[in-house]
Amino acid sequence: MSAITSHVLDLSRGAPARGMAITLEIYMVERGWVKLGEKVTDMDGRVGDFVKPGAALDPGHYRLIFEAGEYFRALGERSFYPGVTVTFEVRDPAQHYHVPLLLSPFGYSTYRGS
Questions:
Q1: Per-domain boundaries in the chain
Q2: Mean pLDDT value across residues 97-105
Q3: Architecture label for domain 4-110
């Protein structure tokens, strides 16, 4: 399993947010935010392979950028949030970091999952 995973639920539909682009970045003092990868949620609204299984994380600040506006636009809806950025800290690289997003066109919530 990847050290960083995510799951997006579309609360307005009561279903997984399929096909949403998510970017993973890390903050490096000398370079600023550096893209580590970009993935698209699967049929269950999940991304389970941001980092190769077994690959070690560096401690530091990471962020996931969820393309909420594009997701809702593809469904023919407007959204107040063009993107949702969730910044979090990796203190223990040996742990798993799961970052779920509960989303609607006009609100969102996130938490550290398991």
A1: 4-110
A2: 97
A3: Sandwich (2.60)
